[in-house]
TrEMBL record:
<dbReference type="InterPro" id="IPR013822">
    <property type="entry name" value="Signal_recog_particl_SRP54_hlx"/>
</dbReference>
<feature type="domain" description="SRP54-type proteins GTP-binding">
    <location>
        <begin position="297"/>
        <end position="310"/>
    </location>
</feature>
<keyword id="KW-0342">GTP-binding</keyword>
<keyword id="KW-0675">Receptor</keyword>
<dbReference type="InterPro" id="IPR036225">
    <property type="entry name" value="SRP/SRP_N"/>
</dbReference>
<keyword id="KW-0472">Membrane</keyword>
<dbReference type="GO" id="GO:0005737">
    <property type="term" value="C:cytoplasm"/>
</dbReference>
<comment type="subunit">
    <text>Part of the signal recognition particle protein translocation system, which is composed of SRP and FtsY.</text>
</comment>
<dbReference type="InterPro" id="IPR027417">
    <property type="entry name" value="P-loop_NTPase"/>
</dbReference>
<dbReference type="GO" id="GO:0005047">
    <property type="term" value="F:signal recognition particle binding"/>
</dbReference>
<keyword id="KW-0378">Hydrolase</keyword>
<dbReference type="InterPro" id="IPR003593">
    <property type="entry name" value="AAA+_ATPase"/>
</dbReference>
<dbReference type="GO" id="GO:0005525">
    <property type="term" value="F:GTP binding"/>
</dbReference>
<keyword id="KW-0547">Nucleotide-binding</keyword>
<keyword id="KW-0963">Cytoplasm</keyword>
<comment type="similarity">
    <text>Belongs to the GTP-binding SRP family. FtsY subfamily.</text>
</comment>
<keyword id="KW-1003">Cell membrane</keyword>
Amino acid sequence: MGLFDFFKKDKENKEQQQALDEGLQKTKTSFFDQLSKAVAGRSTVDEAVLDDLETMLVHADVGIDTTVKVIERIEKRVARDKYVSTGDLDRILREEIVGLLDANSSATGSRAILDRPDSPGQPFVIMVVGVNGVGKTTTIGKLAHRFHSAGKKVVLGAADTFRAAAVDQLIIWGERVGVPVISHGMNTDPAAVAFDAVQKGVAMGADVVIIDTAGRLHNKVNLMNELSKIKRVMQKVIPDAPHEVLLVLDGSTGQNAYLQAQEFTKATDVSALAITKLDGTAKGGVVIGISAQLQVPVRYIGVGEKMTDLQLFDRTTFVNSLFKK
């Protein structure tokens, strides 16, 4: 890496860190207000502090099951260390949350595309799922921008043919980013679109093909059948496609996002998560809860409107930003 490239990368990293810090500001403000109340007037971490801390984590949309795990981890440390001051609570809480997320961390999947050599033989196929309104199409556009900016060849497939706006939006994103979009229009067979998109990806030596799918939980059986058909048809071109099923969730909906995630994991094999709209909510703790409860890695988080505001999720960076005052 040359000196210019080094400074460019350093600038990009600082800009991403700033975007993350600003994107989590509402969550941080709420989080620390609650934490301050939990330790007010107390010097040691006792049962009363832990009770207040439990309430705080639940209010931050970390989720009850995940909150219980965090509290149990802290209880073990308090029992082991005998004396833990409330001044240590920030550090301990940070370490235990990172430890909880560690089991679900993954550097594989679509985040590894940037490290792959160009044209490795066949494109990496990502099937994107999620309900309408969560930012699914926008996430696909931002993903395409990320890969395209890194010099990767990208093909998009507009297989959400149930909603006309979804097809039109994806075409607009394709034009904006500068990548081809395979579309058959509205009310067409989504599996046929996916087939053509994967076939196009193979023909042009693409590095990645991203397939949009219908964003409706109209019926679990119908959803399962539709997604299964899309998979089967893509596998006629690439036998192990899709290589990743990315579920997009709206972080601002808190625990409702977790309920959506439960439904989609029943309907298809979700292998990674993208959690959007964290900049508009104080419920950023849902990232921790969903990852821990579903045992599915968070791959990307959305912290703003800019194309660069879809960031790779790094558990340590995320938690450190959350605790940055």
